[in-house]
Design goal:
Elements: E1 11-15, E2 20-21, E3 29-30, E4 35-41, E5 44-48, H1 50-72
Antiparallel strand pairs: 1-4, 2-3, 4-5
């Protein structure tokens, strides 16, 4: 059976290979080896620290739940 389509972008969790700033909040610094959320946009990826990633995921879950409620009518 074919896999259902997804409206989610390509996302993955990996570890930072070098130190850099979170792309949501430059005050959040990712150090080498830190977990991060990588969200692909075409050929490039945006990287988010764990606190920002969890906030983004929480907001998106709420949006998806509202869409599902509207479809159920």
């Amino acid at each position: 059976m074919p896999r259902p389509k997804s409206i989610l972008q390509r996302v993955e969790i990996d570890e930072a290979q070098r130190a850099h700033n979170c792309q949501h909040n430059a005050a959040h610094r990712l150090e080498r080896g830190d977990k991060r959320l990588k969200v692909w946009d075409g050929r490039s990826a945006d990287n988010y620290c764990v606190p920002c990633a969890l906030g983004i995921i929480t907001i998106d879950i709420a949006k998806l739940q509202k869409l599902a409620e509207r479809l159920r009518g």
